[in-house]
Amino acid sequence: MTDVFPRTRTTPTDVVQIRSVDVEEARALLTRHFYPILVGAPDGADGFALGLDVIRLGPLTLGQVRFGGRTSVVATELDGYHVTLPTIGRALTRQAGREVVAGPQTAAVFRPGDPVYSLHDASSAELDIKIESPALEAELSVLLGREVSGPIDLPPTMNLADGAGRSFRRMVCLLRDELPHNESLIRQPLIAGQIHQSVLNGLLLCLPHRYHDELTAPARPGAPRAIRRAMSAIQDEPERPFTASDLARIAGLSVRSLQEGFRRHVGCAPMAYLQQVRLGRAHEALRRADPSRVTVAAVAHRWGFAHLGRFASSYRTRFGQAPSETLRGS
């Protein structure tokens, strides 16, 4: 495993790619990245093979798992929420007496606590998503603007054929497709934080649970004083990898009230306001910099822009010239 950003205060990003034909080694690998797991080969160890590509974005772990032969898996105790989305073949799963036949149109969803038993087809592939329990529950609390106690009562299945479930599947597959690329933006801490929050929010929004109606109901806008707290935090440290949840905590609001408050009192979304402040700081830095010693890329990264092309486009829209022109004083 490579710790791509070992010194940052942002979302840690780890990527591993592993192949194994040994049952015991496969057990150790899956245990390392997910939960304590037992692995079996019902048709014999000779046909067993495991392929595992894993990315960890803070509290979110996404694994693309491929099974060569039929494989049984027992997770003795889950310490997080888990979703299994088969992309090829099927997985027969059971948790707390609830049996699910998961396939390309149906995902299996597991709650923390009870053991999970599963049997995976030969030559099958799936995406496995683990979300640490405190992270998902804290995210729901921030979205609602109040404390949430105990596990979230997620249902055992997710429909992937249409609606929100299909959208969630596309989002996860987009993340999966970035795994092989060393230069992918998902390895940038600023992007990683946004992605892991999007996956958590997507899971909470696409499945029914006792908080769902409250979560999707219209929100009251935050008061001006609370919005000013978030604005002050942005002004003080615009280079920080703020998410909407971070700003909501600072303001003492739910994410939805924060967003509505910004729209009413500021005229834009909180993340749009953050980008405008960053652009302003970058503009000042470029205007004062020595072009023989400073690059546009260095300034962009200093102020939280991971993608230089998008930075240049937004900069030109705001200031009417390219960042390089400002740097040269032209």
Quick structural summary:
This protein has 330 residues and is an alpha+beta fold.
Notable characteristics:
single chain, 330 residues, alpha+beta, Jelly Rolls, Arc Repressor Mutant, subunit A, 3 domains, 8-stranded antiparallel beta sheet, 5-stranded antiparallel beta sheet, globular
Largest sheet, order of strands side by side? 1-2-4-5-12-7-10-13
Q: What is the architecture of the largest domain at the second tier of CATH? A: Sandwich
Structurally, the number of domains stands at 3
CATH-level-4 superfamily name of the largest domain = Jelly Rolls
Helix and strand sequence: EEHEEEEEEEEEEHEHHHHHHHHHH
Number of strands: 13
Structural class: alpha+beta
Helix content percent band: 40-55%
Name of the CATH class of the largest domain: Mainly Beta
Percent of residues in beta strands? 15-25%
Which outline best applies?
globular
Write up this protein:
The structure is a single chain. It contains 12 helices and 13 strands. The protein folds into 3 domains: 2-206, Jelly Rolls (Sandwich), CATH 2.60.120; 218-267, no CATH class; 273-328, Arc Repressor Mutant, subunit A, CATH 1.10.10.60. The strands form 2 sheets. Strands 1-2-4-5-12-7-10-13 form an 8-stranded antiparallel sheet, sandwiched between helices. Helix 6 (224-236) packs parallel to helix 9 and helix 7 crosses helix 8 (255-265). The chain is globular, with a radius of gyration of 22 Å. The protein has helices at residues 23-33, 133-144, 163-177, 189-206, 212-216, 224-236, 244-251, 255-265, 270-288, 296-302, 308-319, 323-328, and strands spanning 2-3, 13-20, 37-40, 50-57, 60-67, 71-75, 80-88, 91-95, 98-102, 106-110, 116-120, 124-132, 157-159. With 330 residues, it is α+β, with helices and mostly antiparallel strands.
